[in-house]
Design goal:
This protein has twelve helices and ten strands. The protein has a six-stranded parallel sheet, sandwiched between helices. It has helices at residues 2-30, 35-46, 59-107, 119-130, 142-151, 165-170, 186-199, 212-221, 229-242, 244-255, 279-282, 325-329; strands at 112-115, 135-139, 156-159, 178-181, 204-208, 225-227, 262-267, 289-295, 302-305, 318-323. 53% of the residues lie in helices and 14% in strands. The protein has 335 residues and is of the alpha/beta class.
Length: 335
């Protein structure tokens, strides 16, 4: 659209240059005026400002002026039409994009809603894209929203306040599997937790908090999990000094593409081929590292770290595993 507008403006500029040359030549030829007088008369005629003539015109000069005036009005009409079309097309493009986005969101199921696209939010988007999960981004800052669209062309972005119920509704919160709120202000994250929990009681809500005091408030507001970058960052920094070897292993996994270690969870459904068998029997540990086995209800789960190979898997069990993205993609055959 920008290239087309530039071409139109270039042609219009060329049109006015040619018409001005014709006007100057005509007045110098028919009236015998100087270049400056001819140029002045041409400009006031083309712009139809209605000033007095430089000097009385002959019959030929008047006829020429009427033709020049018609050319000037035509050019001005085309000029205004091009500018109007530019703004209409720009607004129409934005409207069509928003309409396509909303239609796509209406069809989503089990997606993730990300509130806020600051530094933390950007990293969340990268992780969700690598996990191939559908997600919707809510960002109140138009410039950040445009930046997300440029860096993540396939992202579904809604410009709006995530703390408002109508914004969460437009993001399909009633059909979402989870919501991550990483806004810059604790109070905003708190409001999002409250609204999200009211709109979808089954939603998994992950909230950002800056300190431990706010963390407890987030849980009371309905957050399922709360992450404090300040606390987790401090723990990680201390761990690099206290447990350098263990921490370095994970750091290497995050830095080297050939390792790129990640954690994931696998839930065993009633149709799972692994249900009723032991870990050794399903040979899952030949592909990934089984970190823990979770069993029981959501609020009373029993956690067994580093389960033995003789542990029998049951329907509803969840396995926390670690491996590369390619290894984790192969877990589908056990679920």
């Amino acid at each position: 659209m920008g290239g087309s507008f530039s071409r139109h403006m270039a042609w219009m500029a060329l049109y006015f240059v040619i018409v001005n040359v014709i006007g100057v030549w005509g007045y110098m030829y028919f009236e015998g005026w100087s270049f400056h007088d001819a140029l002045y008369m041409t400009v006031i005629t083309l712009t139809a400002v209605g000033y007095h003539e430089v000097a009385p015109l002959s019959a030929a000069g008047r006829n020429f002026t009427m033709g020049l005036l018609a050319l000037g009005l035509t050019g001005l009409g085309l000029w205004f039409a091009a500018i109007t079309a530019f703004f209409v097309e720009m607004d129409l493009a934005g409207t069509l994009q928003r309409r396509r986005t909303m239609k796509t969101i209406a069809k989503l199921r089990n997606h993730v809603i990300v509130c806020g696209c600051g530094r933390t939010g950007r990293q969340v988007l990268i992780e969700l894209e690598q996990s191939e999960l559908d997600f919707v981004v809510l960002e109140v800052d138009p410039e950040r929203a445009r930046s997300v669209r440029r860096s993540h062309p396939g992202a579904l972005v809604i410009e709006g306040d995530a703390a408002k119920d109508e914004t969460l509704e437009s993001a399909g919160i009633r059909h979402a599997r989870g919501l991550i709120t990483c806004l810059s202000e604790n109070a905003d994250n708190l409001f999002v937790c409250l609204s999200a929990r009211v709109l979808n009681a089954e939603l998994t809500v992950v909230a950002r908090a800056d300190d431990r005091e706010t963390t407890s408030k987030m849980y009371r507001a309905g957050a399922s999990h709360v992450v404090s970058p300040n606390v987790s960052g401090g723990v990680a920094m201390a761990a690099m000094l206290v447990r350098p070897s263990a921490t370095t292993l994970l750091e290497i996994g995050n830095r080297l593409q050939e390792l790129n270690l990640r954690t994931d969870q696998v839930a065993l459904s009633a149709r799972s081929a692994a249900a009723g068998k032991t870990l050794d029997a399903v040979r899952i540990r030949e592909s990934v590292v089984v970190v823990a086995l979770l069993r029981g209800e959501a609020d009373q789960k029993q956690v067994t770290f580093n389960p033995k190979g003789s542990a029998t898997l049951e329907v509803g069990d969840e396995l926390v595993v670690m491996g590369t993205p390619r290894q984790l993609q192969q877990l589908g055959r056990w679920t």
